[in-house]
Specification:
The chain folds into two domains: about 190 residues, Fumarase C, Chain B, domain 1 (Orthogonal Bundle), CATH 1.10.275; about 300 residues, Fumarase/aspartase (Central domain) (Fumarase C, Chain A, domain 2), CATH 1.20.200.10. The chain has about 500 residues and is mainly alpha-helical. It has 22 helices and nine strands. A three-stranded antiparallel β-sheet has the order 4-6-7. A two-stranded parallel sheet has the order 1-2. A two-stranded antiparallel ribbon has the order 3-5. The protein is elongated.
């Protein structure tokens, strides 16, 4: 699949497809606007009037005038000097997505770069050349300067590039693909370095992973409800219609659909002495629905951000003007990342409570720790502890990044968003959440095993079959770690939601 990058007209589904591995090609129709902006920059250079980012220094050095003979050196210098990141490289999929975001942004014709420069970026993306970009070094304002500088430097032949054959020196990788290194013209270095593409790519990646995990958690939550012989009455549509939250209504519908036709549920419709289930079962629509509403709101923000122009200064070719502003400030992305972190925490928190319920014989009325011979066997005792550890770790990471700020660039950049590290934590948090939901999948399937020969619903039995094809019932204690890894991967890859039936589950749109 190849996505056509249509600057200013991109949808969330386009970015999701690119993140998942689709190719991307720039729509040729944006070329006139790009060339008009580049011509505006050339005219400013010819006229000689000082304009920030074109013939001046940067940041606190904006008042320093640069001679025309030094403009190419100025642009190269800004890239090399700003390529000052540290830390582990960003994931390949995130950098690919950031490259596509940058191409689409530059393609809107407000950045003043030449069409040939855009072609080089597009050629690198098409050839599968992914710059090695250290993850640390951006505070989420004045653009993601350090990481975008590393991305740009690699396309200039400086640094490293990941190819299909592994990591190689950037110049060597470009030569192998027949791509000439970038030679930057006036303003181009700044245009490539400014912008929120790294933080936005990280936030989008976190959103897309959390979207899958929320769907899986609805499946495991329904399976846990059956395993605990819980009631589906709290999912009745009439209850949620009175509160009116769309996410809550959609989650309740999904839970009803997932449990529809369960023989386990039918077995205790009458004569059950339990009047109400614990909140972790009964309040799933309220908690998970709130998470769904939050993620949908975040999706709107990030779709808008991804489709916009966030470098500085901006070129308005029609008026022949270059205006300096602050679109590089990533506050919307920072808020979005913080909200995704909250959703990740809550999805995991309520799932861990369901795991605990299932392992507690008083609450679940199942054998202690879900083992046929408790005492001789510990069963799910420690997987529950692992889930608790992962949930607690995510809580410690969820403190809002956006409430922090630290002045940079000699106080010229005196309020920053912290969007980039706020978004960078999301993938590790999502990995923890996948582990928690995987443990719930194992525990819930084990709980349902005790109800044999009664079966759950058709969707939930498909999920159980998916798991049991890889992980047998836990009759006696065994090495548990491999089971947890298998279950986590089924959750993380979307296999659990796919087995249940994606049509049964709500999405972000």
């Amino acid at each position: 699949m190849t996505v056509t990058l249509q600057p200013g007209r991109m949808r969330l589904a386009d970015w999701r497809a690119i993140y998942r591995g689709a190719g991307a090609t720039l729509e040729a129709g944006c070329r006139p606007a790009v060339e008009a902006a580049a011509e505006t920059v050339r005219a400013i250079v010819a006229k000689g009037d000082p304009v920030y980012g074109i013939n001046t220094g940067f940041g606190k050095l904006a008042s320093v005038r640069i001679a025309e003979a030094d403009l190419a050196t100025l642009q190269r210098n800004i890239v090399l000097s700003h390529a000052a990141g540290l830390g582990e490289p960003l994931p390949r999929d995130v950098v690919r997505l950031a490259m596509a975001l940058k191409i689409a942004s530059l393609g809107q014709g407000a950045s003043g770069i030449r069409w040939s420069t855009l072609e080089t970026l597009s050629a690198a993306l098409d050839a599968g050349l992914v710059p090695v970009v250290p993850g640390q070094g951006s505070v989420g304002a004045s653009g993601d300067l350090a990481p975008l500088a590393h991305l740009t430097a690699a396309l200039m032949g400086v640094g490293e590039i990941e190819t299909a054959d592994g990591r190689r020196p950037a110049a060597e990788a470009l030569a192998g693909a027949g791509i000439a290194p970038l030679e930057l013209g006036p303003k181009e270095g700044l245009a490539l370095l400014n912008g929120t593409q790294i933080s936005t790519a990280l936030a989008l990646a976190g959103l897309f992973e959390t979207e899958r995990l929320l769907a899986a958690a609805l499946v495991t939550g329904a399976l846990s409800t059956d395993a605990a012989r819980g009631s589906d009455t709290p999912f009745d549509a009439r209850i949620h219609a009175l509160r009116r939250h769309p996410g809550q209504i959609d989650v309740a519908r999904s839970l009803r659909d997932l449990m529809d036709g369960s023989a386990i549920r039918e077995s205790h419709l009458a004569g059950d002495d339990r009047v109400q289930d614990p909140y972790c079962l009964r309040c799933q629509p309220q908690v998970m629905g709130a998470c769904l509403d939050l993620l949908r709101a975040v999706a709107t923000v990030l779709e808008t951000e991804a489709d916009g122009v966030s470098d500085n200064p901006l070129v308005f070719a029609r008026e022949g003007e270059v205006l300096s502003g602050g679109n590089f400030h990533a506050e919307p992305v920072a808020f979005a990342a913080d909200q995704i972190a909250l959703a990740i925490c809550e999805i995991g928190s309520i799932a861990e409570r369901r795991i605990t319920l299932l392992t507690d014989p008083v609450l679940s009325r199942l054998p202690a720790f879900l083992t046929p011979q408790p005492g001789l066997n510990s069963g799910f005792m420690i997987p529950q502890v692992t889930a608790a550890a992962l949930v607690s770790e995510n809580k410690s990471r969820a403190y809002p990044a956006s409430v922090d700020s630290i002045p940079t660039s000699a106080n010229q950049e005196d309020h920053v968003s912290m969007a980039t590290h706020g978004a960078r934590r999301l993938l590790p948090m999502a990995e923890n959440l996948a582990g928690v939901i995987g443990i719930e999948l194992l525990a819930a399937a084990q709980g349902c095993d005790f109800h044999a020969p009664l079966a759950s619903s058709a969707p939930l039995e498909r999920v159980r079959a998916l798991l049991r094809a890889r992980v047998p019932t836990l009759d006696h204690d065994r090495h548990m770690a491999p089971d947890l890894v298998i279950a986590r991967n089924l959750v993380r890859t979307g296999a659990v939601a796919e087995a249940a039936g994606p049509a049964l589950l709500p999405g972000l749109g």
